[in-house]
């Protein structure tokens, strides 16, 4: 046992020496994840996009329509950037990317409204900008709704309905939304909790495959294998422990930054979400070793890790729900550490639910951690007989 | 003449190296299909929700029925109390709870406002959006009816119609009429793939020549004497190859997955050629930093996501802090993704994307000069070593 530990230790020290000659390693595993962390939290620091550029085409231009436009301008998400003389001018502005949406009030709107001839106003969003389009749509719809209600209100007042009853008549059913645990609809909370770990896991997978395959590239695989006493387990354990320590440090840093510094919602103790992060780090490394065991070449295993790591950010389902994707991706997601991290994060940090509801994810992660065992023999054979293929 | 030789050399290098082929041929062909396949269901339908109906009235049942009938959500269970409903949320059998108050019907009859509570698991904005939209639309529709039937008392059908909405409104979602996810995710991804695979391919081929020529980025022979020729020769090869990829993305991928297709070929060609050249030159500049061929995967792969967020499509450009906006002007993708989105999905002409085209052209010139200077200094160093 003592010998095993000393071998692992020796290989680890050898690994640290390799690291010290290559500043790029430090950039990739330490600086890059932290840069991503700072970058993504900065880009979304406002939480939710507000005051997005919107256009207005007011062909009627009466006091009534101007007051409708003023209501629109007072909305949270809308910034009336410009007035356009015609519909096609507004559409052109949209194509130039100057506005995300516009509001169209045709000629004679006021006149028709006064004469009870039901005029129609309309609004257009460009859903090529998905978030901007749907946020503006809400404001535009509310404004349009209010325009009609203003007319009804005037007619009710004319009939002598007391003002205390007006709201009950105009809007009998109101919806009160309670977005649980993220009451301000903070996109930074929603996206960064997954994007940042997702990028970290991607980097971990690529880098793990890289460091293992690197031995073949520089032709030192036999030397490594002999230090490890002809055991691929020891060789891999020795090679990976120094970087694993760094990854753990980064996970702790990210979580402390999110939950203690930025005060993202956290309904369990910090330790729990750190543990979930660490488990996923190990699972990512295990998957990378597994892929290396399958392909046994640096290039192919790195490519597989890149593909997997990039794809799991889409397939984990935090933007577009996994349940709506094709079944093949739902199976694929079982292999994805990020998917399980997402499930654990939602269950624990975001909502503080009972852990028992998240057990399938924990079991899946543990199984992923065991996957490399199936490849140890193959990797040992490769240590003995395989040469580097570019 | 030298340019043709360099062009041919690059051609041979790339097609003799399966690793590089993987990045410059297979990746740009396969990734668009994979991504489009991931996002093709396009929309989330029938998000499961539960209802806690304390009112047990005709009106509340009507509300629930109407919510259930919307395409966005499906009522999967009716619970007696909130605790029971919460359990379903914890198990993720449902993502939202609608809670209807005891006085739902009586309040509306008395001309008071009543509140329907919507509690949503915020694990995904899509679920939230579905539940909120469904409830809002149903409440608006029912409000109109209640208002007219209980208080306004119209005499004719037409009058009732007008009273329900004295000013009607119509909403049109332009350029992505079904509000599909693929339609807004895929076009920018297509351009991102072009940029990233160029960076990877050029970086790998550079790493390969370093490994083969003992740390030199170019072989020692009479063809590689002028930096401008080297840069142009390499660029021409990738331009030729990537025009095919770009057309494949613009025509085949867009068609197979029925993405919005309003662009004109001419506008697209006018945009894509400078974009590819721009990416090539920046790729050459960046590959200067790459020592071993596999290193570029370490550096370039994870960059795609930050670059994607930088371009202001999924995260609106108006909300991006100025510092990051200025940094984003350094990358072709910022301009390329926006320009392509507007040309292909919104039918913009090349003059509509003038700002982006200017950006691409300025970048092209700057990166061309930097790339040439890098090679000039490399050639000098090599000649000195030789002497």
Structural overview:
The complex is a heterodimer of chains A (390) and B (387). Chain A folds into two domains: 2-45 and 187-385, no CATH class; 52-170, 3-Layer(aba) Sandwich (abc type-2 transporter like fold), CATH 3.40.1710. Chain A is 66% helix and 8% strand. Chain A contains 16 helices and five strands. In chain A, helix 2 packs antiparallel against helix 8, helix 3 crosses helix 6 and helix 8 (187-217) packs antiparallel against helix 12 (298-315). The radius of gyration of chain A is 29 Å and the shape is elongated. Chain B has two domains: 2-40 and 179-386, no CATH class; 47-164, D-Maltodextrin-Binding Protein, domain 2, CATH 3.40.190.10. Chain B has 15 helices and five strands. Chain B has helices spanning 2-15, 18-39, 58-69, 82-90, 104-109, 125-152, 157-164, 181-212, 227-256, 265-287, 295-300, 304-310, 322-328, 332-346, 354-386; strands at 47-53, 73-79, 96-100, 114-121, 168-174. In chain B, strand 1 (47-53), helix 3 (58-69) and strand 2 form a beta-alpha-beta unit. In chain B, helix 1 (2-15) packs across helix 9 (227-256), helix 8 packs antiparallel against helix 9 (227-256) and helix 9 (227-256) packs across helix 10 (265-287). Chain B is elongated. Chain B starts with a helix and ends with a helix. Chains A and B meet through helix 2, helix 4, strand 4, helix 6 and helix 7 of A and helix 2, helix 5, strand 4, helix 6 and helix 7 of B.
